[in-house]
Amino acid sequence: MALARAVGRAGERAGSGRAGAHPDIPRPDIPRPDAAALSAGAAAALALLWLLVCAPGDAGCHPLTVADLFDRVIRHSGRIHSLSTALYAELEKHFPPRDNELGRPARKCHTSGMLTPNGKEYAQKIPREELTHVILKLLQAWKEPLSHFNQHIEHHQELPDDSLSKAKQISNMVHELKTGVEKVTEKMQSMGIISNSLNGMASSEDTGLSISNEANMMSDSDFIHCFRRDSNKVQSYLKILKCRIMPENSC
Amino acid sequence: MKQRFISSVPIILQLALTTLGLPGQSYPGKPQIIRCRSLEKETFSCWWKPGSDGGLPNNYTLFYSKDSEEKIYECPDYLTSGPNSCYFDKNHTNPWTTYIITVMATNEIGSNSSDPQHVDVTSIVQPDAPVNLSLETNTYANLSYLWAKWSPPPLADASSNSHMYHYELRLKPEEKEEWQTISVGMQTHYEVSSLKAGVKYVVQVRCMLDLGEWSEWSSERSIQIPKERLPPEKPIIIKCRSPEKETFTCWWKPASAGGLLTKHTLLYSKEGEEKVYECPDYKTAGPNSCYFDKKHTSFWTIYNITVRATNEMGSNVSDPHYVDVTYIVQPDPPVNITLELKKSIKRKPYLVLTWSPPPQADVRSGWLTLEYELRLKPEEGEEWETIFVGQQTQCKMFSLNPGKRYIVQIHCKPDHHGLWSEWSPEMYIEIPTDFRVKDMVVWIIVGVLSSLICLIMSWIMIMKGYRMMAFILPPVPGPKIKGIDTHLLETGKSEELLSALGCHGFPPTSDCEELLIEYLEVEDSEDQQLMPSHDTPSKNTKIILKETDSDSGRGSCDSPSLLPVKCRESRSLPSTLQTQDVRAKEKKGGKGSWDTRCAASTSEQKTLPCESKKSCTWLAAQLPSNQAAMFAYHSTVEAFKITLNTTNVNTSPILVGNEESHQSLYPIAETVYDDLEKINEMEYSKTDQTTVQVRQNEHSNKSPFLNPKLMDYVEVHKVRQDEEPTLLLKHKENNEKTKKCTVPGTSKEYTKVSTVVDHHILVLLPDQRSQSTPVSQEPVAETSQNPQQSQAEKNTSYSTTTPSDSRRDTSGSDYMDPSSFMPSFK
Fold first, then answer.
1. Distance from CA of B305 to the nearest CA of A (A)
2. What is the pTM of this model?
């Protein structure tokens, strides 16, 4: 069922895919950030779709290595980050901060309470399972607030359609990324790379409700700012995790 | 006597000196009065510049006279104003007088005088600069003032110190160029306000009497305005940067503190925390910076950074700087850049660039991912070519210009966020040329060879001449072409070829008309009953029939494929209108009816095709549309033919000849105004016995089909009634005429009158329209092979002519303008 939804979503995005999305699965040259931001949608969805379809045990396609899966989720998270950067800039343009300061402090993200590694050494020290869990927790924490945010900003008449579609895209991609990370986790667990002792998502989902309430209190640009930061966190953790598990693989 | 002596003395002296070996000694040079100047209007001095001394010690004497008197005085004081000067003291200075001053230089050989100088003392007044300038600063209420004092210029005559000077003061900050000038007045001190603290000022003064010029500026004096004792200005945080995404450093620009000792402190707080920390390390990153080590660096949090500058007067805080370390990562440039030239399989060189990430960046952990961009340009080039290479640490560059020196640089940045590093140091690589040279050699060889081939080709072309032309431009295929003579193409001259092809398209100009020749057919007496009918047209109407274009559509009716049909029909239906040749043959049978008809049609050819519907319809059915004109032509010719018809026997050989050679027809009809009457005369005299002698060129007989040198015309000697008419066949003398008789190997039908000369010689041209000859004539054709045979015993009267008028002959047979008769069938 989830698969079917994913397919539908992918098709929908491919249909409305903007900016001539180039399917860039194994691209030798990395797309420039802005281009990537625009073309992320369809290609990313397709990549994730493939990832989902070609899950382990599926005959007919080559079994994906963990490294491949990691590359995909890392790329996916990178695109989410680019999209959110672009959206943040647009929101800042439309809702200039009241105190007219560019990098205002004191916006408290609803995920700030989470204990996440705030530096390389920390991220390298904590157990893999825990790092994986942190990633999943972060993604989980953003799922609900993002869909709320989507509904919310649709009422903003002054926002361009482009921004709205970006927000929608981000929301979808976070879903997909979470699915992807779960797949990688499953695979790693099945291969014995990490133990099965994930603390379970139950606890984080408990906190998820409360923090999404917190998220609703934020301003739009603060919200995206926070999300952007967390998407960067996710990407960084994924990279660290990959290089910890497979140090030989282009690390 | 004395004069002579005086003048001779220098000469003798000079001679003596030169013999003594002291060259260069001569008169003194002309001295020049530089200036005269009065310091205070009461005395004045004059200075002069000595001229060349002539190699001897000179004495200078200054003479002056006043304009009021004639007397000449010498300078009163040579010493006071220094060397080469004269000082006029008070007693010698009269401000109301103009002095005329001359300086004379004298040496042993002679003397020389300067130009006289007129001096008005009041106009040369310029005092000396003020002296004893001293400066002081004062500060009241945080404002600095400058106090300047000076003395008036000293005078030689100390007693007269009562002059009133005007003073001017100028000042500027030491490092600047522009002066600020202040008019002071009579006083010898001044106070300048509104000065910048901490700046060193330079001051000068000068003075002026109430008339005359300003003195020079006095010597400079400078003074440092003391710095203010103020709290420092705001320091400014320039930037923060993390080189490896693990630590970061912030730099600031210190506040200007007015010379006081100022201390800078960096304070920061992290997002979500109230506590303010001070910079952990001021030293590591150099002055005016703060280094945050790994412990103090957190990611995904915003640092609020401020810098406080403090001195004894107070402190000032910079604007806050917000930093998320994730987004201030700016790596160092890549290192270990190597440039290597490699050769591909095709020996084409390409450049392999490799590099390493900056040593500080820990890319292996996955914490920092770098993307690279390189740029290169030829050394002398202006624009960089930038290539984004992604995360790779090597790049291959193809298609570099050989023989050029390239500059290559690389920089990097973290993916998705952060800033580009500085460009790496310039690397140079020279792309060698030797790869290219080999190619060049090959190309040169190819070029030489091909030009050689071209040369040979063109040489062959020249040798072979027009054969190549025919080769390059082969005859256009198709029925239209059948009439064209390939031999004409091959052997003929270009003009001829052009005429065969070209006149078709020409407009029917008068030039063309000139070239036309009337077509005449000599008819025998049997048909004299027809004469009246076509008497008029042939006589009076100028009918121009131009050469049928052999490749035109019209010509195609002459093609053997079509003609037999026509001819056969003509045989079966003798009454049907046919080509003239056919009809000429078959005139015997029922000629009368259609002859008449066609004669009539001929007469009216310009307006109507023919009178008889029958003949018209026949034509329409028989001939293609473009042959309609042909019909007109034929009929016209026929009409003439009738008038000049010889006996059948006489014409037949010619016709046969025509038939055999598939030759274009050159029937030319031209009205011969006066001569035509003669022709008609001849026609009418059926009873005349004429002998036609046809002499053919032997050469033409040999190869009836291919021989291009056929006889061109027949010379017919006309003998009047009492004489025997003679027909002589003459060959053209040379081939120099453009019109060769192109009919290959045929006997000719001399049916065209080229011209009539001398009122009794008719030049006939061969009828080259062989196609028009019906098949039925074949039996006769054999007889015609021998022109001797064909020379008829029949009685036909011809005018004979000598082939002298070759031009007319030639041109007439060359042309036939179809358009001249085309309209008649429209």
1. 11
2. 0.45
Burial of B601 (C-beta count, 10 Å sphere; 0-12/13-18/19+) = buried
In angstroms, what CA-CA distances link A114 with A111, A148, A221, B18?
A: 5, 21, 21, 114
Residue of A nearest to B244 (CA): A120
pLDDT value of position B688 = 43
In DSSP notation, B311-374 reads: ETTEEEEPPPEEEEGGG-B-PPPPEEEEEEEEE-TTS-EEEEEEEE--TT---TTSS--EEEEE
**CA-CA-CA-CA torsion for A105, A106, A109, A113, nearest 10 degrees?**
120
For chain A, what's the residue count? 251
The span from the CA of B643 to the CA of B518, in Å, is 12
B274 touches chain A (CB under 8 A): no
Q: Is B159 exposed, middle or buried (0-12, 13-18, 19+ CB in 10 A)?
A: exposed
What pLDDT does residue B75 have? 87
Q: What is the pLDDT of residues B705-741, one digit of tens each?
A: 444 444 445 444 444 554 445 555 555 444 444 444 4
C-alpha distance from B206 to closest chain A C-alpha (Å): 56
Question: Strand B726-730 and strand B370-378: pairing?
Answer: unpaired
Interval B11-22: pLDDT, tens:
444 444 444 445
pLDDT digit string, tens, across residues B802-818? 444 444 444 444 444 44
Nearest CA in chain B to A78: B416
Residues of A in contact with B297 (CB under 8 A): 119
Whether residues A106 and B300 touch (CB distance < 8 A) is answered with: no
Residues of A in Cβ contact (< 8 Å) with B326: 229, 232
The residue that leads in pLDDT, B257 or A204, is: B257
The closest alpha carbon to A196, from A128, A242, A138, belongs to A128
CA dist., res. B655 & res. B645, Å (int): 13
> So where are chain A's domains?
67-97+110-249
Question: Is the CB of B322 less than 8 angstroms away from the CB of A233?
Answer: no
Half-sphere exposure in the Cβ direction for A65 (13 Å, CA): 7
Cross-chain residue pair A251–B365, CB shorter than 8 Å: yes
Which residues lie closer than 8 Å to A162 by C-beta, 6 or more apart?
A90
CATH of the domain spanning A67-97+110-249, picked from 2.50.20.10, 3.40.50.1000, 1.20.1250.10, 1.10.3430.10: 1.20.1250.10
| Interface probe with A: pick from B364, B367, B373, B389, most Cβ of A within 10 Å | B367
